Amino acid sequence: MQTDDATVKRVPKGVQIAIGALVCAALLGWYGATNLGGEASYRYFDTLEEFLAAGPATRAGERLRIKGYVANGSIERELDARRVRFAIQNDPPHAVGDATERLAVDFASLETPDLFKDGAEVVVEGRVEAGGGTPVFFADNVLAKCPSKFQAKAEGAADEATPL
């Protein structure tokens, strides 16, 4: 069956553009509502202090990122079990103050970042289990922050010129 061009109604170009713009706006609105909704989506990590203040038991089983500093002398590598256990604290180990608030971390891999060491600033990703006793954070990823390159010179240090 043939149709002639006179009987087929065409949608005006302006209406086509308006429909396309509405579809794009609806998709952007849906994306914003599903992926950007809530305070947690804007927060990259919680500090250890924020996490402990909220109560580890209330966040049990939830996927988290927690920032802290590796406590001096806490790194234990278990080669047979392929695990690294360590503790994080809220303040750098060299800072003045009491670092009594610590969180035990159990990382199920021996592949730690090159910058991972005592006192390193880290972000651990994983889940916490607070089964009755001290909470343990089971990390599946450890990110170590690169130390600042802009550090003050020690007093009395002479400027050293490097020969070309």
What does this structure look like?
- With 164 residues, the protein is of the alpha+beta class.
- It contains two helices and seven strands, in the order H-E-H-E-E-E-E-E-E.
- It has helices at residues 13-35, 48-54; strands at 46-47, 63-70, 76-78, 83-89, 102-107, 121-129, 136-144.
- Strands 2-4-5-7-6 form a five-stranded mixed β-barrel.
- It is elongated, with a radius of gyration of 27 Å.
- 13% of the residues are buried.
What share of the residues lie within helices? 10-25%
Integer-rounded radius of gyration: 27 Å
Strand/helix succession: HEHEEEEEE
Shape: elongated
Which segments are poorly predicted (pLDDT under 50) over 5 or more consecutive residues? none
Tally of strands: 7
- Category from helices, strands and their pairing: alpha+beta
The portion of residues forming beta strands comes to: 25-35%
Distance between the termini: 86 Å
Lateral strand order in the biggest sheet: 2-4-5-7-6
Number of helices: 2
> Mean pLDDT, as a whole number?
80
Tell me about the largest β-sheet.
5 strands, mixed, barrel
Helices and strands in order, then pairings?
Blueprint lengths: L12 H23 L10 E2 H7 L8 E8 L5 E3 L4 E7 L12 E6 L13 E9 L6 E9 L20
Name the descriptors.
single chain; 164 residues; alpha+beta; five-stranded mixed beta barrel; 18% helix
Summarize the structure.
The chain is α+β, with helices and mostly antiparallel strands. The protein contains two helices and seven strands; from the N terminus they run αβαββββββ.
